[in-house]
Amino acid sequence: MSQSQSERFTIASECEAEIEDIGGGLKRQMLGYNQELMAVKIWFSEGAIGYNHAHRHSQVTYVVEGEFHFNIDGVTKIMKAGDSCMIPPYADHGATCLTGGILIDTFSPPREDFLEEGALEKPNDKFIDKSSGQVFNKDNC
């Protein structure tokens, strides 16, 4: 993922961040993360299913576009663009996208299983010069 970090925040360029095909009509793009929070963009093709699962993370999901049947702990609701939901830790949840669509998922703490091993332990060594837009790393400052 193309990202830059200052002392206070990380900037990820959506057009440069890697889009990963995770199978089953789903694609995932990491928008940003640190040790406390993660944001991920997920594309669903028409009829794609995010199978029911549970994890220790709090999750907030925002529907960017499309229509989804969301199941959270056995309760199914239809969610459309502009809708959002809070999924508590360990709640069984999943979604089926009827139309093709996009979700933004946020997780706290971050989903370690979405990252390379040790990614949360090593600091990001890149930052952006706000005035020029140039990206630097610790070796070429």
What does this structure look like?
- This protein is mainly beta and 141 residues long.
- The chain contains no helices and 14 strands.
- The chain is globular and about 40 Å long.
- The chain starts with a strand and ends with a strand.
- The chain has one domain (3-137): Sandwich (Jelly Rolls), CATH 2.60.120.10.
- The strands form 4 sheets. It has a 6-stranded antiparallel beta sheet, with no helix packed on it. The chain has a 4-stranded antiparallel beta sheet with strand order 6-11-8-9, with no helix packed on it. Strands 1-2 form a two-stranded antiparallel sheet.
Name the features.
Jelly Rolls; mainly beta; 4-stranded antiparallel β-sheet
Number of strands: 14
Q: Architecture, according to CATH?
A: Sandwich
Q: The biggest beta sheet, please? A: 6 strands, antiparallel
Provide the residue-averaged pLDDT.
83
Structural class: mainly beta
The succession of helices and strands, N to C, reads EEEEEEEEEEEEEE
* Strand order, largest beta sheet: 3-4-5-12-7-10
Shape, principal axes of CA atoms: globular
